[in-house]
Amino acid sequence: MTISFNELPEFHKELKRFGKKYKSLPNDLQEFCNVVSTVPLGNSKHFNVITQTEILHIVKARLFCRYLKGSSFRIIYSYFEQGQQIEFLELYFKGDKECKNRERIKKYLKNYQN
């Protein structure tokens, strides 16, 4: 079974903004998608499940960008085991921002509460 990928509008804007500066980012994201298609919750210390509910897992992971040479982006995504779906929530550069957007995650989780 294949995993489908979606993204929040905010994520799409972040990807577009960073993609202009870091030309390899779209390809790096595609490579990341290939990895999480096989191992949705990650396969190393670079993946961390930060929230888990009955229907989804929210994962924070490193997204390596070839243009950054050693540095990496952080990517937050939700994984729906039942529907085999991943939705990208946030993309940020560790050098610009220390922490994820907790408010965006809370707002997102409200949509999936019983």
What does this structure look like?
The protein is of the alpha+beta class. It contains three helices and five strands, in the order βααββββα. Strand 2 and strand 3 form a beta hairpin. The protein is globular, with a radius of gyration of 13 Å.
Q: What is the count of distinct domains?
A: 1
Secondary-structure-derived class: alpha+beta
Main sheet specs? 5 strands, mixed
> H/E order of the elements?
EHHEEEEH
CATH superfamily: RelE-like
Radius of gyration over all CA atoms, rounded? 13 Å
Question: How large is the share of residues in beta strands?
Answer: 25-35%
Mean pLDDT: 89
Q: What is the 3D form? A: globular
- Total strands: the figure is 5
Instruction: Quickly name the level 1 CATH class.
Output: Alpha Beta
Q: From the 3D structure, determine the CATH topology.
A: YaeB-like fold
CATH architecture: 2-Layer Sandwich
Question: Strand sequence of the main sheet, in spatial order?
Answer: 1-5-4-3-2
| Low-confidence runs | none
Helix content, binned percent: 25-40%
- Taking the alpha carbons of the first and last residues, their distance comes to 27 Å
Number of helices: 3
